[in-house]
Amino acid sequence: MAEDTTVSKLDFKYWLDKATEWGQATTLESQKDVCHHLPQLQEFLQQIYETLKHMNSVVAIQQFPLIGQLLGRLCWNPFVIGYDESQKILMWCLCCLYSSQPQNPVELKANSWIQSLLCHLLSSSKWESNEAETNTFISALGYTSADYYSHVVKNMVSSLVTELKGNQFNGLNVQGRVSDSRLSEISLLCVPLITLPDLTPLLETLLLCHGSASQEVLSSEFLEAVNEAFLKKKISLMETAVFSLWLRHLPSLEKATFDLLDQLVSTHMTSLEEVACVIKDSLLPQAAIHPAIFIIIDEIFKNILLETDGAPEVMTILQVFTQLFVQAHQNENKQHKFPMKAYFSHCRQPLVVALLGRPSAMHCSQHLKYISEMLKTLVEGESIRSFADLFEIWFLVAHFGEWLDVAAEQLLKAPADPDALLWLLAFYYSPQNENQQRTQTMVEAREIYSQLMMLFSCTALSVRDLQDAVHKAEIKQSGAQHLTTHLLINFLLFSSGGHMIAQEYIAHVTGTREASQEVRGLLLRTAHRVRPSAEGNPRAAALANDLLQKLASRA
């Protein structure tokens, strides 16, 4: 026959009256009465827990408005918490009342109260049957009550960490491993206490523990709560623990990635260094050296780019993320390093190797021509059978967008073969074009390039001169329009006369949010690439930064 776990209002009132009558059991009569009722009280508490665990905290409070009074009084009764499983059941009941996402000051205060009760229960010893004697003992040690309990919590954490060490995966079948149910139980108990600094070693140890079965043994509530606290910077964890969290709990990794993207897109940062600092601080590039994590993050970027039709701000974030990932990969211990094929498994590896090169470390025009020719062979060859195949190639190039910025700059230096660089830009901005359409894009790209080169050496220019140049080129293709914007921004930054009209022209072409974001992304990347510390072009970097400030003030 199934056990009846229904809690009647009559029973609840009876035990609340008893708890009030007992207080902290300081008289002989109350102590005798408590001891007499302990078995029935534990049975009642078990019923309470069986009911609460199927409710959220809001519903629980609505059904049992005085539940806090009852549990609070019982938690401070040394006879109750010293009897059998009562202390443990009280902890479970308190965990059920904890709000994982408090919505108002009342719930925040309730959470704080629950944390303090749990700390008290965790630090309570069964021999503490007389509070006065306990306090005398604490004072004799030179501690305040709060200090004493803090030390006991630290000792408890240390004891649990030692107990769990055997479950940290090392490829061996360790004797005396903690059971999966025990791991789950400990992780669930930690949920209301996650932000306590003393608990951090236990959190890290749990995240590095693995059960005996293939399925996850840590509670999902625990994993979600740890991730939420980490993302909100309420706790600090060592990197390996964070990486383990994201490896074992996909929703946490996805949330971390989306939170980072939301933060970067919603904040108008004025330098790529700021963007890189925020991305690096998230630990996602460092975590991505694990191929499983990289693939998930990459898939998120891919889907967002498809949904936003290649939003410029997302493209910039992807490029900075990739640069930081490559740095983290290069710094990884060679003994444990995965090959690049593990991250870009669907791409031609010679192209991956070519794109991984740093523009400043080689003859740029020659290497750009090599990349362009390799891409052209792939794109126009028979191996591309679908849009998906074409998109994978374009997406790979998008990771290493710095090469496109270098190509646009190199074009202004009158390279021997400008067509190779123009084709590279044309493919980037019009990857879906068929050969005939791409041919038309190239015709328009050559024309605007020719017009700009005729003006490049002019020291006295007007905005009208640039407008006339664009008009003469008769730009119609969408891809050619974006390519034109890219060339124009570089023209303004690097030409003799461009500096004088840059601010006016930028104001003219950034009337829409989309245009403003596109120009902002180009300026951010150029300012970073040619910054003085990179032995670049200080004058162009200063102008790009000034233009970024002007755009930010108009946002």
What this model shows, in words?
This protein has 555 residues and is mostly helical. Helices cover 69% and strands 0% of the residues. The protein folds into four domains: 12-123, no CATH class; 179-248, no CATH class; 250-345; 372-553, no CATH class. The chain has 29 helices and no strands. Helix 1 packs parallel to helix 4. The protein is elongated. The model is unreliable at 1-5, 125-131 and 169-176 (pLDDT under 50). It holds the Pfam family Fanconi_C. This is FANCC protein.
Task: Please sum up the structure shown.
It is elongated and about 105 Å long. It has helices at residues 9-22, 28-52, 57-63, 67-75, 78-81, 86-97, 105-122, 131-140, 145-164, 180-190, 200-207, 220-231, 239-248, 250-266, 272-281, 284-287, 291-307, 312-331, 349-356, 364-379, 387-399, 402-411, 418-429, 435-455, 463-473, 478-494, 498-509, 513-529, 538-554.
List keywords for this structure.
555 residues, elongated, 29 helices, 69% helix, single chain
User: Using only CA atoms, what is the Rg?
Assistant: 32 Å
Instruction: State the low-pLDDT regions, or none.
Output: 1-5, 125-131, 169-176
Number of strands: 0
Q: How many H/I helical runs?
A: 29
Number of domains: 4
- Main beta sheet: strand number and arrangement? none
End-to-end separation: 69 Å
Would you tell me the structural class of the helices and strands?
Answer: mainly alpha
Helix fraction by DSSP (H/I, runs of at least 4): 55-70%
Q: Please tell me what the overall shape is.
A: elongated
Q: What do the pLDDT scores average to?
A: 84
Order of helices and strands: HHHHHHHHHHHHHHHHHHHHHHHHHHHHH
Beta-strand content: under 5%
